[in-house]
Design a protein that fits this description.
Blueprint: E1 2-5, E2 10-13, E3 15-21, E4 26-30, E5 35-37, E6 40-44, E7 48-53, E8 64-67, E9 70-73, E10 82-89, E11 94-104, E12 111-117, E13 122-127, E14 137-144, E15 153-158, E16 164-167, E17 175-181, E18 193-194, E19 202-209, E20 213-219, H1 224-227, E21 230-237, E22 243-248, E23 254-257, E24 265-274, E25 279-280, E26 287-290, H2 294-344
Parallel strand pairs: 4-11, 18-25
Antiparallel strand pairs: 1-2, 3-6, 5-9, 7-10, 8-9, 10-11, 12-13, 13-16, 14-15, 14-17, 19-20, 20-23, 21-22, 21-24, 24-25, 24-26
Protein name: Ig-like domain-containing protein
InterPro entries: FN3_dom, FN3_sf, Ig-like_dom, Ig-like_dom_sf, Ig-like_fold, Ig_sub, Ig_sub2
Transmembrane segments: 311-335
Length: 367
């Protein structure tokens, strides 16, 4: 209260408390996490800021600590969930604001999905997932239930809109719905969820050439381009663990890897990966390839060189044999031709020469 006086009037200025910082209306944390709910106020005199659980006068646990107007609860338990009031008061007034604390269990995803249809729209509602946060993206998948061959279609929206969604739909179709959150992750941040909506790449093959590396090829899955997902390549050595190699956009269907180890057997497989949904497809069939070691690679090159040299020698020998055969055939044919010419000039019986009909002379023989 501020008091001041003029010649005719006495003024009293009263400052009831007001909030200078409002707590969030909703806090959602995983079980075992810590949460801090902020709150502060101002007025004259300076107000007191206190927290209490709704329908209760005090906070009865040692895990709850108030620093100024901020309330921190460490290592959240299921019993910590509920509504909390931030109370700001001075001698003139008391005000309060309520915040809800939701403690999520580790096994929770979107659940209690319900659908209500009318003549011109379908309304879906659900409970939030374990990692529900504001400004995240949800994916609603749907398809006609009487046609399993038709692909799933999806609708996306951010979680700050609400925990329900309505849109126009054909009421003559019976449809199946499901909801996916974009942050289904393990504690270390790795992606763990698999989705039946994503199909793995097909026709996976791997081939190795010295000095060129391992070339991996595949075909896109049926819904990969439509869903806008990536091709994720994994590999392992014999009896080893799977290791992530790289993720490629759906426009690529091959990858050349040159950082492999020598003289090793590699197994490769691919998954379809949606980074926005943080979900994988099931793995594809494996492709197996063996690389050559340094000595094996040199032997391989020597083997090829020796083979090429042998081929050159064999081809040379074939050419020589062909040339000799050709010369022999020419000589033989020449000899035969010369003989034929000579025989055509002489009678077949000694030196007797045949004559034509006009040259025939009658000879008389004396007895």
């Amino acid at each position: 209260m501020t008091k001041y006086q003029t010649n005719k009037f006495l003024f009293l200025k009263i400052d009831p408390p007001i909030f200078s910082t409002y707590p969030s209306p909703l806090y959602q944390r995983n079980i075992g996490d810590d949460v801090t709910m902020v709150c502060s106020g101002e007025g004259d005199p300076a107000p007191l800021v206190a927290w209490k659980k709704s329908n209760s006068n005090k906070l009865m646990t040692s895990r709850r600590n108030q620093n100024g107007g901020n309330l921190t609860i460490a290592i959240l338990e299921n019993g910590d969930a509920g509504s909390y009031d931030c109370v700001v008061s001075n001698v003139y007034a008391t005000i309060y604001v309520t915040s809800a604390l939701v403690v999520l269990r580790p096994d929770e995803t979107q659940h209690q999905l319900a659908a209500v249809s009318s003549t011109d729209y379908v309304r879906l509602s659900w409970q939030p997932a374990l990692t529900y946060e504001k400004e995240k993206i949800l994916y609603i998948w749907y398809r006609p239930i009487n046609s399993s061959r038709k692909p799933w279609q999806n609708v996306t929206f951010t979680t700050n809109q609400s925990d329900e969604k309505s849109w126009s739909d054909d009421s003559s179709q019976m449809r199946k719905y499901d909801v996916y959150h974009d942050v289904i992750q393990s504690r270390d941040g790795s992606l763990t969820a698999t989705s039946s909506f994503l199909l793995p790449p097909t026709n996976v093959s791997a081939s190795y050439w010295p000095n060129q590396g391992i070339n991996i090829t595949w075909s896109q899955s049926a819904n990969q381009s439509a869903a806008g997902v990536y091709s994720n390549i994994e590999y392992r050595l014999a009896h080893g663990k799977w290791v992530n190699l790289t993720s490629l956009p759906p426009s690529l269907t091959s990858y050349n890897w040159k950082s492999m180890s020598r003289d090793a057997v590699y197994h490769f497989r691919l998954r379809s990966l949606s980074e926005k949904m943080a979900t994988w497809s099931e793995p594809s069939k494996e492709a197996v390839v063996k690389t050559f070691g340094d000595s094996s690679s040199q032997h391989y090159h020597n083997y090829l060189q020796q083979n090429f040299a042998s081929w050159y020698v064999a081809i040379g020998m074939l050419l020589v044999i062909f040339a000799i055969t050709l010369v022999t055939m020419v000589v033989v044919m020449g000899v035969k031709y010369v003989r034929k010419v000579r025989m055509s000039k002489h009678l077949p019986y000694g030196h007797v020469k045949y004559s034509g009909a006009n040259d025939v002379r009658q000879e008389t023989r004396s007895w």
